[in-house]
Amino acid sequence: MKLTLGFSPCPNDTFIFDALVNNKIDTQGFSFDTQLLDVETLNQGALEGRLDITKLSFAVYAKVKDQYTLLNSGAALGRGCGPLLIAKRPIALDEIKDCRIAIPGANTTANLLFSTAFPHAKNKDIMVFSAIEQAVLDEKVDVGVIIHENRFTYQQKGLVKLMDLGAYWEETTGNPIPLGGIFIKKSIPETTRRQLDALIRESVEYSFSQYPQLSSYIRDHAQEMDENVMRQHIDLYVNNFSIDLGQEGHAAVDRLMEAVR
Predict the structure, then answer these.
(1) Catalytic activity, per the record (predicted)?
(2) Which residues does the annotation place in the binding site for substrate?
């Protein structure tokens, strides 16, 4: 059975899916047409029902619930791993509402967390996450919401952190931060969905068994990222919740859904 599968080229996602898509584990007759895309592109694709299995921002979950259901394995959820609000120079938080803000996609969890913290900040520029640091440096925007590996690089570029949006979420809700999860079309039979969930879990566990070694698949898609940054990325975003969301993970997702409403 061949299925379409979408996830990002970021090290946490390639770490999770490496064994599955490169036949390092027994895929039980499943094969995959794999598409590696920016998470906001994946979010948009899910709104149109493009892929059978896809990584999505949890913030878009409510908009795709009629077509997709959440799998237990493969998620990016945890503590101390949320998006950061950064700028070229210190800015008072009560001035953010008047700033021009770069966000990594309208449907991202990063935008949802920012909007929760700054509900009156409306002057947003949507751009690919990897372009936000430079946009702030070039003063095309006043502040930026950064995700992924940019958490590890912004200080090297002389940028300053104004707020940790993930820490804000943790402090106000007590929950870990639900960033993104793996979703599968409801039209796929439930027994097949369970099989695929188990395979993703096995794929994550395989990568953990090889770690800290990085496969060529992870390195090739990491856009010339330093290997230490790749490992920082994996350490931050891949954890026990990536193996199984469990009760605590699902509770955090439910709490985020309340914020969406």
Answers:
(1) cyclic dehypoxanthinylfutalosinate = 1,4-dihydroxy-6-naphthoate + dihydroxyacetone
(2) 55-57, 109-110
Q: Is 148 a catalytic residue?
A: yes
Cis-peptide into 9, omega within 30 deg: no
Confirm whether 2-77+177-260 and 84-173 share one CATH topology: yes
- pLDDT 10s digits, 36-49: 999 999 999 999 99
Catalytic residue of the set 148, 221, 233, 250: 148
Structure-token pair, residue 201 = 């879990």
Domain 2-77+177-260 has CATH 1.20.1290.10: no
* Distance set, CA 226 to CA 36, 153, 223, 232 (Å): 20, 11, 9, 10
Q: What is the pTM of this model?
A: 0.94
**CB-based contact 67:1 (threshold 8 Å):** no
Q: Between β-strands 76-78 and 143-146, what pairing exists: parallel, antiparallel or unpaired?
A: unpaired
The second-level CATH assignment, the architecture, of 84-173 is: 3-Layer(aba) Sandwich (3.40)
pLDDT in tens, 85-124: 999 999 999 999 999 999 999 999 999 999 999 999 999 9
Mean pLDDT of 71-86: 97
Tokens of 169: 């979420």
Binding site feature residues? 55-57, 109-110
